[in-house]
Specification:
InterPro entries: Thioredoxin (IPR005746), Thioredoxin-like_sf (IPR036249), Thioredoxin_CS (IPR017937), Thioredoxin_domain (IPR013766)
Strand content: 15-25%
Protein name: Thioredoxin
CATH class: Alpha Beta
Organism: Halosolutus amylolyticus
CATH architecture: 3-Layer(aba) Sandwich
Shape: globular
CATH superfamily: Glutaredoxin
Keywords: Disulfide bond, Electron transport, Redox-active center, Transport
CATH topology: Glutaredoxin
Order of helices and strands: EHEHEHEEH
Number of strands: 5
Structural class: alpha/beta
Helix content: 25-40%
Strand order of the largest sheet: 1-3-2-4-5
Pfam families: Thioredoxin
């Protein structure tokens, strides 16, 4: 990946999910990485817990960055993306939101979705 004027999060490990700490943090991650899958989740959400190992696996297997947003800690951020239920998955490619899905999706469907936007 080419380096650019943004400093800071480009040294993020891409083989594990990144926990987002607010809107500016998410904006920086999206701006600095080609493909980002954002998992809006809640600790009390059963389906979110089922999705967690899938997200961790995709972080290891794909070039995409997996970002996790706790909707209870980031209510305004979740609202800005129209999150009405958890889990909600938002996919960004080249800085633009390209897909959004509510509910648990199988790993192979998520992998295919991500690979449709990666250049490798």
């Amino acid at each position: 990946m080419a380096t650019d004027a943004h400093s800071g999060s480009s040294d993020l490990p891409t083989d594990e999910p990144v926990h987002v700490e607010g809107a500016d943090h998410l904006d920086g991650i999206v701006a600095e990485h080609d493909v980002v899958l954002v998992d809006f989740y809640a600790d009390w959400c059963g389906p979110c817990k089922m999705l967690e190992p899938v997200i961790e696996g995709l972080a290891e297997e794909t070039e995409a960055v997996m970002a996790k947003v706790d909707v209870d800690a980031n209510q305004q951020l979740a609202g800005a993306y129209g999150v009405r239920g958890v889990p909600t998955l938002v996919l960004f490619a080249d800085g633009e939101q390209v897909e959004q899905h509510t509910g648990v999706l199988p790993a192979d469907r998520l992998r295919n979705m991500i690979e449709g936007y990666t250049n490798e």
